[in-house]
Structure to design on (282 residues):
């Protein structure tokens, strides 16, 4: 049984802050009130999300917003944590595994693709969404229209992501790689012409392109499959099962599409509405 936090001044302030920022996000997590939680944990849950990715996980002061944040809030609700019981932490592509291994966070929902290599050191529930990879260029670029056009070009991606390797190693395209700490840094390098293109998931690029339609162009030639999992510490099989049940419900009750609409409905991005096929937990 979870011991509910006494409503301290801090708790009230957090709840107020959440209420103030809630106008842009869907009302989720209420179903967690009094819900059965088998997590045996304390009164809060720490979740790592991106803070710089519009549409997915964006922190503009206050509670982060976006699809990953909504998904994580819904899942936390099903595990018995109300929105005010969630402690958000910024995760970058490069620190997701170490955050889980060191217990910095309890879970990660940060455009975190399930891969065999990562499964060696962490567990994944999901996937809760299947993205694809794409390329972003400056708006006036016309010669980059797919990965094969990146031969000899300077390409930015975030360290700790798989995106660049998918092109240079798996597709054997001879691009010159420039790694940045996160994708918003790549966007700066693209705007000032240091790099020719940025590659990562179409969800991420769509968010940036929608924010700056006059500056950037999404090539819109998607490839590959990026299965977004909920990252968990190794050995979390039981919690993984609970989260998979929550993900199934999130798609069944229409919440997943509602969150996607909220994130991308006002953009040109045609997000995937097919229910993702869950992977085994163990
Ligand atoms: N989904 C890809 C990955 O996990 C790229 C996006 C990211 O770095 O967050 O490697």
């Amino acid at each position: 049984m979870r011991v509910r936090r006494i409503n301290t001044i801090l708790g009230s302030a957090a709840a107020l802050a959440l209420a103030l920022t809630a106008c842009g996000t869907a009302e989720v997590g209420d179903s967690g009130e009094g819900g059965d939680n088998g997590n045996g944990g304390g009164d809060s849950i720490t979740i790592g999300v991106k803070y710089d990715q519009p549409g997915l996980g964006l922190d503009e002061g206050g509670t982060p917003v976006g699809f990953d944040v909504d998904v994580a809030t819904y899942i936390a609700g099903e595990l018995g944590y109300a929105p005010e019981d969630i402690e958000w932490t910024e995760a970058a592509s490069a620190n997701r595994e170490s955050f889980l291994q060191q217990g910095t966070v309890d879970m990660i929902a940060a455009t975190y693709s399930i891969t065999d290599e990562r499964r060696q050191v962490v567990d994944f529930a999901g996937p809760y969404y299947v993205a694809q990879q794409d390329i972003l260029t400056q708006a006036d670029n016309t010669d980059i229209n797919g990965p094969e056009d990146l031969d000899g070009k300077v390409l930015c991606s975030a360290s700790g992501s798989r995106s660049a390797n998918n092109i240079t190693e798996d597709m054997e395209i001879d691009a010159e790689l420039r790694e940045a700490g996160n994708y918003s840094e790549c966007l700066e390098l693209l705007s000032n012409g240091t790099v020719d293109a940025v590659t990562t998931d179409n969800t991420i690029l769509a968010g940036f392109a929608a924010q700056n339609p006059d500056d950037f162009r999404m090539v819109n030639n998607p490839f590959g499959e990026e299965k977004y999992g909920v990252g968990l510490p190794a050995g979390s099989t039981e919690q993984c099962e609970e989260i998979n049940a929550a993900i199934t419900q999130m798609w069944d009750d229409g919440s997943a599409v509602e969150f996607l609409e909220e994130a991308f409905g006002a953009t040109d991005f045609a997000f995937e509405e097919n229910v993702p096929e869950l992977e085994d937990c163990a």
